[in-house]
Amino acid sequence: MPELRDIAALRAWREAERRAGRRVGFVPTMGALHDGHLSLVDLAARSAPTVLMSVFVNPLQFGPGEDYARYPRDLERDRALAAGRGVTALFVPGVEVMYPPGSETRVVPGPTAERWEGAMRPGHFTGVLTVVAKLFNLVQPDVAVFGQKDIQQVTLIRRMVRDLDLPIEIAVGRTVREPDGLALSSRNAYLTGAERGQALSLSRSLRAADTLWRAGEAEAPRLESRMREQFHAAPGVTVDYIAIVHPETLAPVKRAEHGTIVAVAARVGRTRLLDNHVLGMEFR
């Protein structure tokens, strides 16, 4: 599995794939790989015989006081997992490769980024879209795969691709969960044993909303109230937001329909976690 560390090497590799007539699937990550990431590799491989994964902890999407310095990093483990899952090549750039001295151009999203995660983390999505746009330009993938767990990020990337007329198919992989329902996340490594139990309140709140909706309740305030009941039983968990929103605009809805997104962000101890569910889909 080639490990590409600079732009020249990446472009040479990509040109060879182009000359060979092979479609390229792309899985961008920040490393600390888990089964959720590896499921995205599987999804990419269904659409393209060649799968490139990037591993880059993007400083631009971390705000002051966030966990950039302590974000889990283990390239040796990531390399082994990627190779074992059939990744064709790995792109592992340093910060100086992605953001050379003097770099100042940024991709700034519109109003869809101003609520929910965007409100909690000002500038976060500018960092996300900037690095994704740069990676898309460098890799020129036929298909790029992202996880549903970061649903607002996926929504904004899809909009960027549409608004900028980028010839890239965006595929979204379902959230992968532990047997008890906890959504896989690299940040789960921060949780203590007691906190991990408390973190189950996120998935339980989503399941409670899904059960109530399937029973015929569509009023968003009642679904939210049922979700908050799950957090009342979980001391040590602070809810940042509960969002019941339209799947494209992410605007709040009064009544939930098939396809409505139910999302939650909460802090468990010092760890901030996200989770969501699309109503009408099987909860797993």
List keywords for this structure.
284 residues; alpha/beta; Rossmann fold; Pantoate--beta-alanine Ligase, Chain: A,domain 2; three-stranded antiparallel sheet; 9 helices; 9 strands; 18% strand
Layout of secondary structure:
Layout: E1 3-4, H1 7-19, E2 24-29, H2 35-47, E3 50-55, H3 75-85, E4 89-91, H4 95-98, H5 117-120, H6 124-139, E5 143-147, H7 151-163, E6 169-173, H8 193-214, H9 220-232, E7 237-245, E8 261-268, E9 271-278
Parallel strand pairs: 1-4, 2-3, 2-5, 3-4, 5-6
Antiparallel strand pairs: 7-8, 8-9
Short description:
This protein has helices spanning 7-19, 35-47, 75-85, 95-98, 117-120, 124-139, 151-163, 193-214, 220-232; strands spanning 3-4, 24-29, 50-55, 89-91, 143-147, 169-173, 237-245, 261-268, 271-278. It is of the alpha/beta class and 284 residues long.
Tell me what you see in this structure:
By secondary structure, the protein is α/β, with parallel strands linked by helices. It has 2 domains: 3-173, Rossmann fold; 186-277, Pantoate--beta-alanine Ligase, Chain: A,domain 2 (2-Layer Sandwich), CATH 3.30.1300. Strand 3, helix 3 (75-85) and strand 4 form a beta-alpha-beta unit. Helices cover 38% and strands 18% of the residues. The model has no long low-confidence stretch (mean pLDDT 96).
Please provide the count of β strands.
9
Structural classification = alpha/beta
Low-confidence spans: none
Determine the CATH superfamily of the largest domain: HUPs
Shape: globular
What's the story with the biggest beta sheet?
Answer: 6 strands, parallel
Strands of the largest sheet, in order across it? 1-4-3-2-5-6
Oligomer: single chain
CATH architectural category of the largest domain: 3-Layer(aba) Sandwich
